[in-house]
Amino acid sequence: MHMQDAKEVLKLRDICLRFGKAEVLRGVDLSVKQGEVVVIIGGSGSGKTSLLRCINLLNVPSSGSIVIDGETLFDLDRSGADKAGLKPAQVNRIRAQTGMVFQQFNLFPHMTALQNVMEAPVTVKRQNRQEVEKRARDLLAQMGLDQHVDKRPAQLSGGQQQRVAIARALAMDPKVMLFDEPTSALDPELVGEVLKAMVALARSGMTMMVVTHELGFALEIADRVIFIDQGLIAADGPPEQVLLHPEHPRLKQFVGRFHETADLLRPFLEGKTAAATH
Amino acid sequence: MTFDWTVVTSNAHLLWQGFLITLYYTVTTIVAGLLIGLVIGLIQLSPFRPLVWLGRLYVEFFRNIPLLVIVLWTYYALPIFLGVNITKGWAGFLALSFYVGSFYAEILRAGVQSIDPGQTDASTALGMSYGQRMRRIILPQAFRRMVPPLAGQSIIQMKNTTLLSMITVPDLLYQGSYISSFTYRPMEIYTAIGLIFVVVLVPLTLLSRKLEKAGMVTK
Fold it and tell me: Which of A149, B38, B116, B117 has the least C-beta neighbours within 10 A?
């Protein structure tokens, strides 16, 4: 791919995050190019979700800088001097250039699927209601939800809710999409439909950062896989290198568990193909 | 003893007048209380510590002093402190509104805080401001949950208006004691007043149950 000359959509520098005494992130540097799909993996408590939530300031870093498409969203050096000095309205405007999809979907339960998708463009961007509705219907159709536009979240399955959530984020025309374990709360048989929607989105050229445990998805679609360990980036490279030939000892351990489950399945899978060839 | 209901029927016009006064103070103090509750409730949810404390102070003050003391104090002591004359009607209105406002504020605060933080995350991530989040996402959901406790507190409020009789506002209870004073039949009169409250409040209770169910369906 032509990643070398693509422009940087997101640039994080020296991101630190503290919750009280606990240091969750300890200086993360990361830049993401236009159209790149970055998968973030790591054990629980490694800081991978916190990192994602820092990008749109749902978690406010204790220091570091965040630049989205050339605009500085946040800039605080380690001494605590605020170099960006943005007003909340400016923060909201830049923040709206990122879309986020959550583990628990977080759809608005008092609105239909269509109203969920229309809410931010109408309320935040004050766009024309008719145009927003047309685009929202298109996005929901793209997610395979044409039959469900007038249903409320409670009437939808988890997989359908998550696809509405993706459409809701896309309606704001984000520069980068952030996925926080989007399939972790789903029943196993519903994971596929959400991953399929995400693969289609990645192929369409959307810049994506995905925190996930679906390593198969990472191998399939990621341009880069990042392993976070103890609040730092411990490995960063193409999926084949990070997932299939890990060097970092803790990454080896982490990926090893995945390979073990795959190994457990292998006899069954091979038995199946053997049976099919007969 | 036998009940002689003629003392009630022959003084029905006095009870009716009292009933209208009771209704008037119930409705006006609930409306004023809701406004106070909204302001104090939102103040308590603000990110500014001093405002939160101010709201807390208000709530604890009015919630922990007996209403009768507040009513009497507002009528007898407040005019002295402020150096102004307030009528018994105004004193009663203010006391009842401030009192119920503190309870409404707590209901609002608890209602908003019961909403899943994921809702704030999602609306914030979409670029919504604090005001937009509250107005479009949080409050509409919180109000649904607040219907049952608001209805409960409002029912209590109607009964609490009877304390106005202590500062001679001619409400239902005041009329009752007045009728008793010349008929010497308090049993019949107070039984009738009790029944009037039941007849008005039981349908309202049923209505709030219905609203509660309707609220659950939309979730």
Answer: B117
SS (H, E, C) A99-136: EEECCCCCCCCCCCHHHHHHHHHHHCCCCCHHHHHHHH
- Give the gap in angstroms from C-alpha B46 to the nearest C-alpha of chain A: 15
Element (H, E) at A31: strand A22-33
Q: Which of A93-97, A248-252, A256-260, B125-129 has the lowest mean pLDDT?
A: A256-260
Q: Rounded distance, CA A14 to CA A16, Å?
A: 6
Distance (Å, whole) CA B143 – CA B140 = 5
Interface of B with A (CB under 8 A): 116, 118-119, 121-130, 132, 136-137, 140-141, 144, 218-219
Res B219: pLDDT: 45
Identity of residue A128: N
- For the residues B185-194, what does the mean pLDDT come to? 93
Structure tokens at B217: 């369906």
C-alpha span between B23 and B88 (Å, rounded): 17
Which pair of structure tokens corresponds to residue A124? 């935040």
Domain B19-218 has CATH 1.10.260.40: no
Which 3 state secondary structure label does DSSP give A141?
helix
The upper half-sphere exposure of residue B35, i.e. CA atoms within 13 Å in the direction of its Cβ, equals 7
pLDDT of amino acid A5: 63
Q: Number of H helices and number of E strands within chain A?
A: 9, 10
DSSP, collapsed to helix, strand or coil, labels residue B97 as helix
Give, in degrees to the nearest 5, the angle at Cα A218 between A217 and A221: 80
- Give percent of chain A above pLDDT 70: 95
Q: Does residue A188 sit at the B interface (CB-CB below 8 Å)? A: no
Contact B125 A95 (CB under 8 A): yes
CB–CB contact A106 B116 (8 Å): yes
Paired with A177 in beta bridges are A99, A208
Task: Tell if the CB–CB gap between B127 and A100 is shorter than 8 Å.
Answer: no
Min Cα distance B103 → chain A (Å) is 26
A with B: how many residue pairs have Cβ under 8 Å apart?
68
Domain boundaries, given as residue ranges, for chain B: 19-218
Tokens of A37: 């799909």
Over range A250-263, report the average pLDDT: 83
Check pLDDT > 50 for residue A83: yes
pLDDT in tens, B119-134: 999 999 999 999 999 9
A274 Cβ under 8 Å from any chain B Cβ: no
